[in-house]
Write a structure and sequence with these properties.
CATH topology: Rossmann fold
CATH superfamily: P-loop containing nucleotide triphosphate hydrolases
Number of strands: 11
Structural class: alpha/beta
Shape: globular
Order of helices and strands: EEEHEEHEHHHEHEHEEEH
Number of domains: 1
Length: about 240
């Protein structure tokens, strides 16, 4: 599904050029659940942004579903993103002038789905995350944890082929965090490819492959014996 060839990304600052990504080579097969770990500032979120086609100022080659992303126009990249990618942002990126339900409907509006079906999918998702009573509430009236739940729900509601998540449980208490990770695992078993950035070994355990990024480079992948919940995996 994904192939990166020598991806580089640099920033110019007062002290000179800061090479954040220094030649990333990566392949992700369809149906994998990959966790990217590493210290703050290592380039994890930046790599996720490139994978999601939000960042175009990089060097190298990126192939997604056999399409050469590095050769596409910004408009073409945006169309691919809307059609195939769900993204859980660290800063939520909810639209404050839309209600919770309206925020959830946005990804569905990019697809050929009738309004009645969109409403049914939104209602089901609201029930799944326990926010039916807050469907008409604006995001600014919610706690950070509830905003995170809505952001996760918005990313997965259209069942994207690729789900990218940047610290998806960072603002959630443990029970909501477990709920989200088990939902991710279920989606992955149903065919969704997932790449998450996380500092949590526990969350990484829900996937089947862990990558470590340090100083802008990916270390050798660490295969994990996965299947089942994180507790079951640790008990093996």
């Amino acid at each position: 599904m994904i192939r990166l060839c020598h991806i580089k990304k640099s920033f110019q600052d007062k002290s000179g050029i800061d090479d954040v990504l220094r030649g990333i080579d990566l392949e992700v097969r369809e149906g994998e659940f990959v966790s990217i770990m590493g210290p703050s500032g290592a380039g994890k979120s930046l790599l996720l942004s490139i994978l999601g086609m939000y960042d175009s100022a990089w060097q190298g080659e990126y192939y997604f579903l056999d399409q050469a992303i590095h050769r596409l126009t910004p408009k073409q990249r945006a169309e691919l993103n809307k059609r195939y990618v769900g993204f859980v942002f660290q800063q939520f990126h909810l639209l404050d002038d839309l209600t919770v339900a309206e925020n959830l409907e946005i990804p569905l509006s990019y697809r050929d789905i009738r309004k009645s079906e969109r409403e049914a999918l939104v209602a089901d998702m609201l029930d799944r995350i326990g926010m039916v009573a807050r469907k008409n509430v604006f995001p600014s009236r919610l706690s950070g944890g509830l905003q995170q739940l809505v952001a996760v729900a918005r990313a997965i509601i259209a069942r994207p082929r690729l789900l990218l998540a940047d610290e998806p449980t960072g603002n959630l208490h443990s029970e909501h965090g477990r709920q989200i990770m088990e939902l991710f695992q279920k989606l992955n078993r149903e065919g969704t490819t997932i790449i998450q950035v996380t500092h949590s070994e526990f969350n990484a355990g829900y996937g089947n492959r862990v990558l470590h990024i340090l100083d802008g480079r990916i270390e050798e992948p660490e295969k994990t014996a996965r299947g089942g919940t994180a507790e079951e995996q640790k008990a093996r």
